[in-house]
């Protein structure tokens, strides 16, 4: 093989990976706590990782994951409000220590912090999370699907994956034969149970 042919030849192909795990594609991130002893206030679903946990003025907690922003007020007995990150339209700071979360469906959430520095820090965290997505792999759905494949076969997450691979009839088919798309079913499941 001449010198010229060697430079024109394509590089040899890489060997195929034996099995790529979800933990390799979407590794768990370390949770950062503003204070020791804080709890996020919710149980993460498959592929969701809590990134930040902080304290609000009323003694409750605010937590942000790769999927949602969750607030757990101290006075609230049940679960507090939880909003998917991609449902947030914008974040504003009012009166130095109030963080206003504006949602795409018209809802507003107010988080009050002890000082302005905490408020600015949470504004920065949320603004960074709201940056436009560059590829489909950066969506939560991709992390969810990868981690769901590693769940036990009887889990709800695996059942949703199996349903997404089942053949669907056309959305506007005759009545009685229409099936809802899996994305809609997944969205309903997440709203109802988390």
> How would a textbook summarize the main sheet?
5 strands, mixed
Order of helices and strands: HHEEEEEEEEHHHH
Going across the biggest sheet, name each strand in turn.
Answer: 1-2-3-4-5
CATH fold group of the largest domain: PH-domain like
The overall average pLDDT, rounded, is 80
Q: Are there runs of 5+ residues with pLDDT below 50, and where?
A: none
Binned, the helix content reads: 25-40%
Calculate Rg over CA atoms: 22 Å
Structure overview:
The protein folds into two domains: 22-129, Pleckstrin-homology domain (PH domain)/Phosphotyrosine-binding domain (PTB) (PH-domain like); 151-193, no CATH class. The longest helix is centred in the middle third of the chain and has 14 residues, at 116-129. It is built from six helices and eight strands, in the order H-H-E-E-E-E-E-E-E-E-H-H-H-H. The protein is of the alpha+beta class and 194 residues long. The model has no long low-confidence stretch (mean pLDDT 80). The relative contact order is 0.12.
């Amino acid at each position: 093989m001449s010198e010229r042919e060697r430079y024109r030849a394509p590089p040899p192909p890489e060997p195929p990976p034996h099995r790529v795990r979800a933990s390799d594609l979407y590794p768990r991130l370390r949770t950062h706590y503003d204070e020791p002893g804080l709890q996020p206030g919710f149980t993460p679903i498959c592929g969701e990782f809590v990134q930040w946990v902080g304290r609000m003025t009323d003694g409750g907690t605010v937590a942000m994951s790769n999927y949602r922003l969750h607030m757990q007020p101290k006075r609230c007995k049940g679960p507090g409000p939880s909003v998917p990150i991609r449902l947030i339209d914008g974040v504003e700071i009012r009166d130095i220590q109030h963080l206003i979360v504006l949602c795409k469906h018209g809802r507003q959430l107010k988080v009050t912090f002890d000082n302005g520095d905490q408020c600015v820090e949470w504004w920065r965290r949320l603004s960074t999370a709201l940056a436009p997505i560059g590829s489909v792999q950066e969506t939560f759905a991709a992390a969810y699907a990868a981690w769901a494949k590693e769940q036990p076969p009887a889990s709800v997450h695996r059942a949703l994956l199996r349903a997404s691979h089942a053949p669907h009839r056309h959305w506007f088919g005759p009545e009685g034969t229409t099936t809802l798309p899996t994305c809609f079913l997944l969205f309903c499941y997440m709203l109802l149970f988390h």
